[in-house]
Design brief:
Helices cover 38% and strands 15% of the residues. By secondary structure, it is an alpha+beta fold. The protein has a single domain, classed as Glutaredoxin (3-Layer(aba) Sandwich).
């Protein structure tokens, strides 16, 4: 997925109005130092693309309640917390913190759609 996020980054690299945030899927292992080393593999400028870690439950709550991302389709039928381990979703959020789209970060056509949607969104703010 980070390879695909790297495509998004390369498209908008140096554009201060586009920020990328990659959350760890293994916060118990991924330290700040490890994520920093990992970010260097992508030549990620920390002023534009951040790799973050934190408390596992807080990350899960953020993904579920803020980004509306879960690893299960129907969250009304079961407790998603034990199941939420990893999501393939890329979420497009605008400057007012509104979700504008959700994309499968493992599929090339979805990543291309994300890039096009970012271009369109940027036009709204011109």
């Amino acid at each position: 997925m980070n390879e695909n996020m790297s495509k998004v980054y390369q498209t908008f690299r140096g554009q201060p109005d586009v920020a990328l945030l990659s959350h760890t899927v293994d916060p118990e292992t991924d330290t700040v130092e490890q994520l920093k080393r990992y970010s260097l593999k992508f030549d990620a400028d920390p002023s534009q693309w951040n790799f973050v870690t934190g408390d596992k439950m807080e990350l899960y709550k953020m993904a579920i309640n803020s980004y509306l991302v879960t690893a299960v389709e129907d969250t009304t039928q079961k407790d998603v917390m034990p199941d939420f381990i990893h999501s393939e979703k890329f979420v497009l959020i605008d400057k007012e913190k509104h979700i504008r789209g959700s994309y499968d970060g493992t599929k090339e056509n979805e990543v291309k759609k994300l890039i096009e949607d970012i271009k369109e969104l940027r036009k709204e703010y011109e």
